[in-house]
Amino acid sequence: MKYSDDIIKLKGIGEKTAKLFNRLGIYTTEDLLYHYPRGYQSFGPPVKIKEGLGEEIVTLELFLPASFKWKKVRNLTIGTGVLSDGTDSVSVTYFNMPYLKGRLTAGSSYLFRGKIRTEHGKYHMDQPKIFTWKEYGERMGRLQPCYSLTAGLTDRAVAKAVDQALQSFGEEEFLPEDIMREYGLMGREQAIRQIHFPKDQDSLLEARKRLVFDEFFLFLLAVRKMKEYNEELATDYPMMETAWTSRLLEALPYQLTGAQKRVWEELKGDLVSGSCMNRLVQGDVGSGKTILAFLCLLLTVSNGYQGALMAPTEILASQHFEQLCGMTKQYGLPFKPVLLTGSVGAAAKREIYRQIEEGEANVIIGTHALIQEKVVYQKLALVITDEQHRFGVRQREILSEKGGKAHVLVMSATPIPRTLAIILYGDMHISAVDELPTGRLPIKNCVVGTSYREKAYEFITGQVHRGNQAYIICPMVDAGEEGTEGLENVVDYGEKLRSRLPADIHVEILHGKMKPGDKKRVMEAFAAGHVHVLVSTTVIEVGINVPNATVMMVENAERFGLAQLHQLRGRIGRGAEQSYCIFMSGSDKEESMDRLKILNKSNDGFYIAQEDLKLRGPGDLFGIRQSGAMEFRIADIYQDGELLKKISMTVDKLLQEDGQLEKAEHAELNRYLNENAGNYIDFRSI
Questions:
Q1: What is the pLDDT of residues 244-257, one digit of tens each?
Q2: Would residue 628 be called left, alpha or beta, if left means φ above 0 and alpha means ψ between -120 and 50 degrees?
Q3: Torsion over CA of 425, 605, 512 and 530, rounded to 10 degrees?
């Protein structure tokens, strides 16, 4: 098979199954092989209840003496049974799984796999997986891959497809031999096989090391080449200082912080320099990056040009648009903004296209569709991109085709340590807004175990009845994925919460697998105050500004990176009222609680990211995942930071010796880089 072959060519994958894979972004054999496991399960022998207490996931052989009891609470079907291991008993609960009525029969024994918790001195398991001895025996003694899935697709189905693809898989080695030796790397073909089906833990770590190396190495090569390209660019849109920006600064009801003033001078200097601006502005959520973006747009339009502001979500783009329109009206600014997103109707879109092409609109706000849509700009001089976007050579070429060499500003709230940011954004100048606006109340944090949950619900109820709103964050979308036993999921949690909270509290759920229209509806309802409690995955991380939200509770907080938790809590604390963040740990381990308590010590994202680095170990390779602007397939800029620094030096040395990769020993690397650079330097994948 070829990399480019459609997965439907694989045995056992028909049109229906192919559509399920497509939902995960898997269309070709290459997509499938690069859909790496998100973790692994090791199936050991069943243990006694007391032996499994405190462990993440265990398997118990339990006897069911009496039938399960089933009841209906609102729209929630709850089944409960008490089972025994011969010594102790455990209460097992299932939510919305009525089909188990026919499977769980009194007088039978079963294997249950999940997490044991204690409550009021009794043992409990929620939603454990059920296995026959035959099913369990097939898994014992091996590391089983667990993949990101969608409804209707199982780990076994993905693994079977991957196994087929690997049977005809072959790839030329592109790394030079001296680099392979220096880092002690296994071959790439072997690494891809072992990352899916490792023979043991050591093989898994070696495979991951090779694939992490490749991602960083190819990415940095592409970045260095982009830097050479960018440094040669003189702008087609020379600017000069105007009075508009100073007038706005004088009219604002607040003073810029010292950090904002410093960064504004750097941005202004770039825009009037005569060369293309290519700058990254880093700053915590709420540090005031948006006003800096508006000032850049104001300088641009007051010079007679157009500017574009791209946000990661439609709802955030809409909020930026409304905020800019409000400021335009309040301060009499020369903005003529339009909002261009995928949900705009065809007729309205044609009118917006006309306004942009004729220069009637001078600020265009939307998602990254702004450069992909059939838009003809009259004088697009500035493109500002928010979190999760990165501009490379390909995007600059698109912009050039649309009217010339534009200035580029990237804004990020991801707290990347400066040493790593300089490497990762090596083609950009970097500014830091490292000071929060005065008068903002610091968020009050607490780290608690699951026994605190009922008190947390009471606290959230009190806050809602005072007129405030709350977020509850879960690590999973829905139940069913192997390896996620004991983890809270949005779908079931939403149902449980509706039955637990008072009827006057409106609970909604939000996750990335929802249709765009449904996501937008829920987020708009929450922003408008019609939804009181939003149960969500981390999809809200770069989401919306809701000053009325004063509480965030994060379930299974131990499963998130600290930098990500810090970004999540940045969704609250945006209004005048005191805000509270509750980090609920599903782990009883002392080190998990100590790690989370770092979030109590500081609200500085950079400090938190650095402290997280110190505590990470080999056991965290797949359990904790960071997020933000740099989403690699398998590499993690935090836990793999030291390797990244070393690879950066290797790339610099390689390019000093052979800048164009023309030597014979670099021919295969040059070919591979040219064919695959888009995978490493494209804003859609990074």
A1: 999 999 999 999 99
A2: left
A3: -130
